[in-house]
Amino acid sequence: MTLQMNSTHEHAVLELAKVQTLLRARDLAERKLPTVVLTRLVAAGKLERVARGVYGLPGTAISEHRSLAEVALRVPNGVVCLLSALRVHGIGTQAPFEVWLAIEHRAPIPRLDQPRIRPVRMSGNSFTDGIDHLSIDGVSVAVFKAAKTVADCFKYRNKIGLDVALEALRDGWAQRKFTMDEIWHFAAVDRMTNVMRPYLESVTV
């Protein structure tokens, strides 16, 4: 009876892994499946540990943004921002090796070895406005919208460089990733209207 139950649990977890590419122990617990099944499946070579506390099917095709999904699982209250968000939106030429992650002003800084994160503290509307939830490898990942990301690039230009912010604005506008109303709105949210005004006017000339 125990063997049959174990087999049933393992089958259920493997089926879940086909739908939800990345699994955590809590995903099993929410479905009343014993978390020890993860250990057994890894030992049997039917699952692999892709990051601390994160599991997936061996040989599964992974997306370019897999690291963002891993971070979203481990830091569920964070929002992908700045260079990592530009990459998601296909804006500019930045290819960050860290995951740039906005965290609430008073939240503790997450400690992850892999993937490495670059935490950016935000507060108020700057942290809560302009968030999209994208599905990456079966995981819901919070990412700032393109217009919000560009405004953030100007707000944090001392961290990433004004040249990166300008490239993001020009390339995002050229690709029609946002409207001028949207970019003005988020410039106001970030209190960047005076800083961004001459650059916004230049791209519409």
Describe the protein's architecture and organization.
- This protein is of the alpha+beta class and 205 residues long.
- The chain has two domains: 2-56, Arc Repressor Mutant, subunit A (Orthogonal Bundle), CATH 1.10.10; 66-203, no CATH class.
- 49% of the residues lie in helices and 16% in strands.
- It is built from eleven helices and seven strands.
Largest sheet: 3 strands, mixed
Tell me the β content. Answer: 15-25%
| Strand count | 7
H/E topology pattern: HHHEEHEHEEHEEHHHHH
Tally of domains: 2
| Biggest sheet strand line-up | 3-4-5
Structural class by sheet pairing and helices: alpha+beta
Q: Roughly what is the average pLDDT, rounded to an integer?
A: 88
Topology:
Blueprint: H1 2-19, H2 25-30, H3 36-43, E1 48-51, E2 54-56, H4 66-74, E3 79-80, H5 82-89, E4 99-104, E5 117-122, H6 125-128, E6 131-136, E7 139-144, H7 146-155, H8 157-160, H9 162-174, H10 180-189, H11 193-203
Parallel strand pairs: 4-5
Antiparallel strand pairs: 1-2, 3-4, 6-7
Helix pairs in contact: 1-3, 5-7, 7-9, 7-10
Write a brief structural summary:
This protein has 205 residues and is of the alpha+beta class.
